[in-house]
Amino acid sequence: MKGPRNLGDLQLAILRTLWEHPDTSVADVHLALHDRGLALTTIATMLRKMEDKGLVSHEESGRQFLYRAEVDPELVQRNLVGDLVTRLFDGDPLALVNHLLRAGEIELDELDDLRKKVADAEKKQRKERS
After folding, report:
1. What's the predicted TM-score (pTM) here?
2. 15, 24, 62, 99: which has the highest count of C-beta atoms within 10 A?
3. What is the pLDDT of residue 67?
């Protein structure tokens, strides 16, 4: 399945809520996003639009709809990062990593973890080639 691109902040926040709490009512999504100061009707409208795009689905439970995400969080993350790399770093993922390193966004312990992941990825690629 091809993942969504160009999700807005509200759409992403709704998806995060539904990933954490599947089968959630509009009222509960609204409560989870209360700090945004949006009306319940705004959340309901956005959920309907997201359902039209295949991002979420609902089931009826009594008099309310219970929503769940229909897209995988890893797929969404991969697509959003891919778009970021394309738009800001001319499609060069190494430029993104260099930016994070220069900006001090990666801590030393995270850097050690990154080195291990790079080594594991290299081993996997070598294994696949042979």
Report:
1. 0.77
2. 24
3. 98
* Domain coverage including residue 64: 9-69
Geometric angle at alpha carbon 35, from 48 and 105, rounded to 5°: 100
DSSP 45-98: HHHHHHHHTTSEEEEEETTEEEEEE-S-HHHHHHHHHHHHHHHHHTT-HHHHHH
Co-location of 47 and 77 in the same domain = no
Q: How many domains does the chain have?
A: 2
pLDDT over 70 (residue 102): yes
Examine the domain organization and report whether 27 and 56 are in the same domain: yes
* pLDDT tens, position by position, 36-71: 999 999 999 999 999 999 999 999 999 999 999 999
